[in-house]
Amino acid sequence: MEIVDQHVKSIMEGCKERARDKGLQFEDETLEYIVTNRDLLELSPKVMIPNLYDYWVHDVRVLSGKGKYELYPDNPYETVINTRPAISFYNDNNPDWLNVMIFYHVLSHIDFFQNNLFFQHTWEYDFEGQALSDKRLIARYRSEKGRWVDYLIEFSRGLDNLVGYHDTVARTITPAPRRMERIDYYFDIFLQKEKKVSSNTYLKEIARYNTLQKSETYTNDSFFIDVIHKYPEFDALYRKRLKAKEHPRPDVMQYILEHSTVLKKEENSWMKSVMEVVRNTSLFFQPQIRTKIMNEGWASLWHEILFMEDDRIRGHETNFAKVNAGVTAMPKVGLNPYALGMRLFYHIWEMEDRGCYSLDYFLLRDEMKRENFNDPRNSGRGLIFNIRENLCDFTFINKYIDQEFMNRHKLFVTGTRINRHRMSMEYYVKSRSAEDYKEMLTNTLYHPPRIHVDHEKTQKGPLYLIHTFEGKALKTDFIENTMIGIEFLWGEPVRLETWEHVKASAPHQIPGNFWDPVVPKTPESKPDEELVWKRFLYVMENRKLHKREI
Q1: Reduced to 3 states, what is the DSSP secondary structure of residue 419?
Q2: How many CB atoms lie within 10 A of CB 122?
């Protein structure tokens, strides 16, 4: 691995000037390295961070990658990492015309890293320098503590998808939250979540509040006279809520770091340092997996636009077309984030240029009028830059994939069935609806389970974890090993409350009000195999796992 020569660097600097002319924004300093395919195989398990801490799983993945490469050699074009300065790696046999295309792709990634708000918590420090410091720290502990360091890393990595990423982003991009007013607490929290009143009672209280507001003598105190009379405990619960808001709920790893009896022992203080390394590394990489479609689509969009306008590539248009088609081809089955993201950005750009994100267009029902609609009001280019700054894959997909996009690119959702004549599985078109397509894409996105610590129950006994059910069960294969690790880190038994899909002899009704975030629905099943969602409690004690229905 070596830094690119001056000739290649001059090509990159020319690409920077042209990219900035189109509105891309990135820092001046960048580092470019030439690497071989085998170098990339060794860097890939470390997410292309050369200084990331050593861990035995990385070595296994390197060996696996080398084995696959022997059978199916490929030639990755580039990789770029979100550091300060940004570092990118290029294959050692790329011609100059290909480097022009790749440099534009890389610069677009850097623009995305340095402007998308989901990456904001990574902007203020150089992660590569921090990773080198962490690597040296863990190497020192490994020389002192031996294999216990690897056990600790493994247990911590079993939890690193439960870090409070969204809380970190919220603290970074938003000002300190305002003090929750009594009226907000009463309607949003107290009635709905704590008292769980009926919808009729809730609506009556809203009507009473609206009526009182219209009177000249209205004050908050006048409204709450009846509230206190009916619910004497209201003020105490409100003050408790305010106190809790001053100390945001930590994620599972944070809670263990702060409260574990094992980690509080002086001889185990080194464990906290290792866990913090794993947690901070996870927080750094979280935004990349949550913006994969947007990030690759953004880079593909701009490498195509900028490359075709670059006079340095004349005579290589055919070569570019071949490479670009391989990168951005839209498969009929499966997902190519480069292709989907790029086409959706182009679609949004065109729709906004025609004024299609307006009420006038929305109210049209005539297909021909919709197709010929043209009432430019805003800049589509400005809109996609705004999207690049503020959205992630989930909001990008759910807000902007529409039926026009589906029809334009002839997209559909596929299903599989058995062809009994040929005795084989076959694909068929299941749906051409935008809503079904969005649901399919949403199911492919990274979405770790929401698990939090019940502090009150934990104070009375073992560590008590609650899985916030969102329609999907936990992977039961991982529960035992993960809970063994948590028990080791916590030093006492651990309980986990979750939902599972099981057979039942009678219908299982789950009570809930209309404001409940998720009411589990029983999927369709065979008549003789009724399945229902039921709550279970897993208990890990002395490295033995027990399970019972609750």
Answers
A1: strand
A2: 21
User: Distance between CA atoms of 482 and 480, rounded to whole angstroms?
Assistant: 5
Q: Is 318 exposed, middle or buried (0-12, 13-18, 19+ CB in 10 A)?
A: exposed
Sign of CA dihedral 39, 40, 42, 43: positive
β-partners of residue 30 are: 86
Three-state SS annotation for 375-407: CCCCCHHHHHHHHHHHCCHHHHHHHHCCHHHHH
Signed CA dihedral, 49, 50, 55, 57: sign only = positive
- 344 vs 108: CA distance, rounded Å: 16
For residues 205 and 183, the answer to whether their CB atoms sit within 8 Å is no
CA distance 26 to 171: 24
How many Å apart are CA 77 and CA 99, to the nearest integer?
A: 9
Asked whether 532 and 519 are in contact (CB, 8 A), the reply is no
pLDDT in tens, the chain (550 residues): 788 889 889 999 999 999 999 999 999 999 888 887 777 777 777 777 878 888 877 776 666 666 655 555 555 567 888 888 898 888 777 788 888 889 999 999 999 999 999 999 998 888 888 888 999 999 999 999 999 999 999 999 999 998 988 888 887 876 555 556 888 888 888 898 888 889 888 998 898 888 888 877 777 677 888 888 888 888 888 887 776 655 567 889 999 999 999 999 989 999 999 999 999 999 999 999 999 999 999 999 999 999 988 888 888 888 888 888 888 898 888 889 999 999 999 999 999 999 999 888 889 888 888 888 988 878 889 999 999 999 999 999 999 999 999 999 999 999 888 888 888 888 889 999 999 999 999 999 998 999 999 988 998 889 999 999 888 889 888 999 999 999 999 999 999 999 988 886 544 444 333 334 444 454 444 555 678 888 999 999 999 999 999 8
* Whole-Å CA distances, 166 to 120, 128, 236, 310, 333: 12, 23, 29, 40, 32
- Rounded to whole angstroms, how far apart are CA atoms 341 and 337? 6
Here the tokens at position 139 are 């190497």
Token reading at 118: 């989901």
Instruction: Check: CB of residue 351 under 8 Å from CB of residue 404.
Output: yes
The one-letter code for the residue type at 487 is E
Half-sphere exposure of 496 (CA within 13 A, CB side): 26
Q: Which helix (H) or strand (E) holds 142?
A: helix 127-145
Contact 110, 122 (CB under 8 A): no
Rounded Cα distance, 84 and 127, in Å: 7
Residue 177: DSSP 8-state: P
Task: Indicate the domain borders of the chain.
Answer: 2-116, 130-164+251-287, 182-246, 329-444, 450-549
